[in-house]
Amino acid sequence: MNGFVAPSVGGQLDVLLPYLVVAVGGLAIMLVDALVRTRRRDHLPFLTLLVLLGSVLAQLARSGGEEREILAGMMTVGDYARYFNLLFAGCGVLTTVFAGAVLERDGRGRPEFYPLLLFSILGMMVLAAASDLLTVFLGIETMSLAVYVLAGGVRGDVRSSEAGFKYLLLGGFASAFLLMGMALLYGFAGGTAFSDIAGALAAREGDLGLAMLGGGLVLVGFAFKVAIVPFHMWTPDVYDGAPAYVTGFMATAVKAAGFAILVRFAWLMQPQLAFVWYPVLAGLAVVTMTVGNLVALAQSSVKRLLAWSSIAHAGYLMLGVVTLISPATGGSAQMVLGREVGESAGSALLFYLLAYSLMNLAAFGIVASLGSREGEADDIERYAGLSRRRPVAAAVLAVAMLSLAGIPPLVGFMSKFYLFSAVVRAGLVPLAVIGVINSLISVYYYLRLLVVMYMKKPEADGYAGHEPLAVGAAAVLAGLVLLLGVVPDGVHRAALVVFRQMSF
Question: Of 359, 361, 253, 364, nearest to 304 (Cα)?
Answer without folding.
Answer: 364
